[in-house]
Hints:
Blueprint (H helix, E strand, L loop, with lengths): L8 E10 L7 E11 L4 E5 L6 H9 L6 E10 L2 E2 L5 H7 L4 E4 L3 H4 L6 H6 L10 H17 L16 H12 L6 E5 L7 H18 L2 E6 L2 H7 L2 E6 L2 E6 L1 H6 L4 H9 L48 E2 L8 E2 L4 H7 L27 E8 L9 E8 L4 E5 L6 H8 L7 E6 L2 E3 L7 H10 E4 L13 H9 L11 H15 L16 H13 L5 E5 L7 H18 L2 E5 L3 H7 L2 E6 L2 E7 H6 L4 H9 L16
Helix pairs in contact: 6-7, 7-20, 10-17, 14-15, 14-16, 16-17
Amino acid sequence: MTTAAPPLLHVTGLGVAAARAHGAPLALLDSVALDVARGESVAVVGESGSGKSLASRAVTGLLPEGVSVTGGTVALDGEDVLALGPRVRHALRGRRLTLLLQDPFTMLHPQLTCGRQIADGLREHTGRGRAAREARRAEVARRLAEVGLDAALADRYPHELSGGMRQRVAIAAALAGDPDLLIADEPTTALDAASQRAVLDLLGRLGKDRGMGLVLITHDLRVAFEVCDRVYVFYAGTVLEHGRPADLRTRPRHPYTAALLAAEPSVRTRREPLPALPGFVPAPGHRAPGCPFAPRCAHATDVCGTGPVALAPVPGAGEGRLSACVRIDELVRQGNVAPVTDDATGPVRDETTPAEPEGAVLALDAVSRTFPGAERPAVDAVSLSVAPGEVLALVGESGSGKTTLARIALGLESADTGAARVGDVTLAPGARPGAATRRALAAEAQIVFQDPYASLNPLRTLGATLAEALASPAARGKGPVGKAGRAAEVERLLAQVGLPAAYARRRPAALSGGERQRVAIARALATRPRLLVCDEAVAALDVSVQAQLLNLLRALQRTEGFAILFITHDLGVVRQIADRVAVMYRGGLVEEGDTARVLDTPAHPWTRRMLAALPEERDVPAPAEEAAG
Length: 629
């Protein structure tokens, strides 16, 4: 008789709380349990504020000041790391366990070469002298090759690499100490589908080859289902469901999991509106008694709000299926936790593109831009247009030229050749526009960035930020004037993006990520632009918040009549929002057409490769031919 090997990581009853000046500590995590075996990949999914990253920091001993573990155990290979002293726990990081963060710039020092940063983490080859230096350099080259990079990159700095390459270097640096456990916190959020697939395949392969445990923290269920052996669903500091990906994908056993699955934008089917969870994850200290999800659950009854709710085996669902829903048996019999499938009934938008009216809002004619020292143009003779009231999605891999093209359209970057027109403003190549032209451009076009902090001053209230936009030269003649008029317009803008008037007195730090992005949209719309540029505006958001924002953008676009240039790497998002798609590859435009035509019957090898790289398209074979520019 064989005995199952104990898990590499065994977390039981983990509690975490934040100290308060007055009163009892504020509970952040409650009785979290999690296991990871050697060579196993485990996903931790859930919305922002669910406690995913906090749990990883509790495991690695990197909790912020004022936050501490209040109970439970964290055993690594049978040893409780919570019982170890600070110096011993510090020595474990990088050697026994390591944390890979979402932004590789957070892990990579901008003033050190990539090779130096990998070498600093190596366990061996740390001696002195020429032989030791050569041995370190050879080992660095081997580590770079392991993550699919050329040894020549050892002498380059992080800013000289693309996003996907930086993330690979960060992985190599994180694994330089040969840890037993790697915790990857949203490592592919900002990557295009092809780069994302490569990084995920790499992490999975390295885990299996090394016998290393992997914890993948993500809000993307498709990513979790693609690469992981088991999935934990977090919500409000606790675990609501656990099981294997195939089971959770087709037979969720908690209403929260089913709601997340329904909000995932599908690349095959377009729905209006996209199913979205109402409300937000409760803030610490505001968790409802009983099931924490009950206030947002369409199936909650009085029984859900009484007594503690704990993970328990789901009868008849197979070994390892756990749910914290007290009504799960009844809901399964009623069919109320079935996932939304691509052929589910419901409203589906007409994807035919309307006839293009005269006078495009954005017109680019053979626009090119080459940066000094670059081997090829960032943008190479691109021509495209966006009609009034149209949504054009601009897609492509990292470094394909999408953002550079948008910056040219907004007058933030000058083209070397070609012409650009935004509304009634024409931009000549060769020089940055003057002050008068920039003011005219701001009246015609506005941008929403991926990070709303790029648009919002953290020291100003939201009302002051919106009032400033309303008083800008770009808004002159388009809305009310005077203090009272602008105050009323601030209230209207907040209501337009689904926020109460009281939010005008708040600062950005008091808002969730989705709420901040709503304010960023309101700020952009304050000047009543004819064109809105969304540069990965929903890329870093949870699927539930992403669905809310996509529905909001489409509704605003229809009522206000502005056009949208939507830059994204998520083809599922493209299906939900875009009328047409333009595909970029190595600075050039390689395919353009109606959304349905491009996604269903792609003509260019690169478009087919992007579709094949999607987690939900894993059975689609990659094209044999090379994608050519």
